[in-house]
Amino acid sequence: MSQSEIRTYAQAMRQANKEARATVAALACIIVVWLVGGFGLAGTDIWVFHTPLWVIGGCVAPWIAAVVAAVVLSRRVFADFDLDEVVGSCPAGSADASGGARGADTVACNGIATEQGAAGGNAVDANESSE
């Protein structure tokens, strides 16, 4: 989902969940690389530059896997969006757009988000300017 496709709070939460699941999957892959590279190669008697292969497999391979995972996640999974700018960004029971207390109703929340967009600042600035 690209940034332009995220228009509602529900879409933003689906994207955040997608990113979280992909990050956990990447972590699982990195752990597998670490286990195979470190413990899996521990029984071999191969040395590279006077270092056992299991040390390289257990230290360098997971680092490379983590860098590759970060690049793949950032290019293919993560989307750049701002929850404050998502239309209807705070449904009932969540924090309002100004970061206020929980329990704000949807109408009030959307009104704050609209004020925020019209004022070009945060909701506190919009409320202060109207007083």
Explain this structure:
With 131 residues, the chain is mostly helical. The chain contains 4 helices and 2 strands. α1 (9-40) runs antiparallel to α2 and α3 (106-119) crosses α4 (123-130).
Entry summary:
The chain has 131 residues and is mainly alpha-helical.
Keywords:
131 residues, two-stranded antiparallel sheet, 60% helix, rod-shaped, disordered C terminus
User: What share of residues are in beta strands?
Assistant: under 5%
Query: Can you count the helices?
Result: 4
- What can be said about the biggest beta sheet? 2 strands, antiparallel
Mean pLDDT: 77
Count all strands and give the number: 2
Low-pLDDT sequence parts: 96-108, 123-131
| Rg, Å, rounded | 23 Å
Distance, first to last CA? 40 Å
- What's the helical proportion of residues? 55-70%
Gross morphology:
rod-shaped
Structural class: mainly alpha
Order of helices and strands: HEEHHH
Order of strands side by side in the largest beta sheet? 1-2
